[in-house]
Every structure is written in structure tokens, then in C-alpha cells.
Amino acid sequence: MNDEPVMATNDDASECKRGAVQLGYWQDSYIPYFVRQIEKRAPEINRGYYARVKGVERYIKSFLKKAGPASQIVNLGAGFDTLYWRLKDQGVYIANYVEIDFPTVTARKCYAIKRNKQLLERIHEQDGEVKLSATDLHAGNYHCMGADLRNISQVESKLQQAEVSFSTPTLFIAECVLVYIENDCVNRLLAWIASKFKSALFVNYEMCNMNDTFGDVMLGNLRARGCNLAGISFCKSLETQKGRFLDNNWQGAKAWDMVQIYYDLPASERQRIEKIEFLDEQELLIQLFQHYCICVGWLGTEFADVNCNGD
Predict the structure, then answer these.
(1) Where does S-adenosyl-L-methionine bind (predicted)?
(2) Is 175 annotated to bind ligand?
């Protein structure tokens, strides 16, 4: 299987985020350290990324409110995500923060961190020691490591290196990651997490409702770029998204399309970002939102009441 086109989706998403940040959709002073070049994107793409970032953020906040500072975050297929630094700026303390992605991607991220002291200083404020290899970085409570999510023993080994506690409440984040992985590998990963962790919330942002013409066009565009969507059958509906967790021994799952997520964001924030760029085709944005969702799965009872607004 050729993983290069999948790895390239990280660059594309990072460029989209940088572009939207530059226009003022949300604040992220760290993304420019990872992305230099940007191309102008259509307004609906920028709004889509805004909804994605803010939607996922609400579940992160909800998790941290319930789990407290002794908890952990494991960001799967993290790419150039800057969440660790943004949480630091918000004064949020967390016991352990782990990022896992293809070694080729983490090598580039480690290099960027090493080269920019603004990134490096923020990750070793606690004990000052940084352990760095070509693909892995460990500093204080931050760990960026290269591994293939299809290889459970590799993932387990990396989590052990990061001193992840299986008995501590843990948030798993995956944004457009599982869709690129074969179904049996995703099932094994989710079942393994369910067997190891006592208390966890999994936040998955991904496509849904793909069984229509709009979905076919989206899939065609991705396949034209060489992306093999090995896990697309789980993206048929909100039900198939939830079923993936329930079939792999998670206690419960809920899912919402991005129309629900977007219109549940504060009205003042929506009004602010809707003034940034004029949107000619409101219908196109709604269609886009109908084809993406956030699905959450949980282990342990403390996260069972998580809702559309993240509360």
C-alpha cells in the first residue's frame, strides 16, 4: 500500500488551517512554524476548517473538565497539529500528551520543533530534558512518535515509551485518520484500546453520509490524489460511525453531522467568522457539513453524557 498520498493530506490540512488562521477565523500562533506556503482556499473550505477545529475543541474542553489535570491525550495521526501548544497558552495542564503519526511525518515535525525555539521552549518548561531521535521526541509531558497505527504492537510499544497509564482517563483524537486505514485494522485498534483503558473518550472527525452524488464527487477527488479510502464503509452514515465503536467493546457512542455542530457553536462567533469572507453559495457549505461528522465513543460512565455542544 502506498502511504505517500495519505501523508500528503497532512500538508494539505495544515495549509488550509494556516490560511484560515491568517484570515482571522481562529487564533493559532504556532501553525506558521510548520507551514510556510499557503494558497487561497474557497470560503466554504475555510468555514469547514473553522467548524472542524472549534467542534473538536469543544469535546476536548468537555473531557478536560470531567477528567482534570491528571488525564492524558493521545492524538492519532496528529500531523502538524498544534493543540499541545495552544492548550499550554490557555494555562491547561495535562499529565501526558502523546502524538503518533507515520515516522516520515513525525520526522518533519521533530525537525520543525528542534529548529524553532518558540516551540521547543514551551515543551520543556517542566524538566528541561529533551530526548530526540530522527522520528521521535520526548520532552516533559510531550511525546511525538513515529508508528504505523495498523501495527498494534508498535503502537503499544510507543505508548509505553511515553509512559502512558492505562488506568488514567485518556482522550483519543483522530481527525480524518481512520478512513485511510483498512477496516480490520481499525477494528483491532479500537478493540485493543477498549481492552486496555478503563476510562476513555475517543473523538473522531470524519466523513459521513457518503452514499450520494456529493459524496461520490468527494471520493473521486480524494482517489484522484491517490488516497485509498480503505475505511470508507464506516462513513456511510452516523449509524455506521457509532457502530464501529459499539462493535469493538466500547460502552457507548454518539455522532452528529457538522451542520448540527456548526449551528450549536455560539451565535456571536458564527456571526463574526461569517463576516470574514462573503459566501456566495450557502447551500454548498451545508452540503459539505452534511458529509462530515464528529463521532464520540466512551469507556467508563463519566463521559456518557457528552453532547452535541461538547457539554
Answers:
(1) 52, 77, 148-149, 175
(2) yes
If you ran DSSP here, which 8-state letter would residue 233 be given?
A: G
CB burial of 184-207 (b: ≥16 within 10 Å; e: otherwise) equals ebbbbbbebbbeebebbbbbbbbb
Q: What is the mean pLDDT of each run of 10 residues along the chain (311 residues)?
A: 82 94 96 90 95 97 95 98 96 95 97 93 76 93 97 97 97 97 97 97 96 88 85 95 98 97 96 94 92 97 83 72
Q: Annotated binding residue at 148?
A: yes
Query: How far is Cα of residue 205 from the mean position of the Cα atoms in its chain?
Result: 7
- 149 labeled binding residue: yes
Q: Does any domain span residue 84?
A: yes
| 309 occurs within a structural domain | no
* Count of the separate structural domains present in the chain: 1
The pTM of the full predicted model, rounded to 2 decimals, is 0.96
Is residue 77 a known part of a binding site?
yes
The answer to whether 52 is annotated as binding is: yes
Domain that holds residue 136: 4-303
For 177-198, give the DSSP string. Answer: -GGGS-HHHHHHHHHHHHHH-S
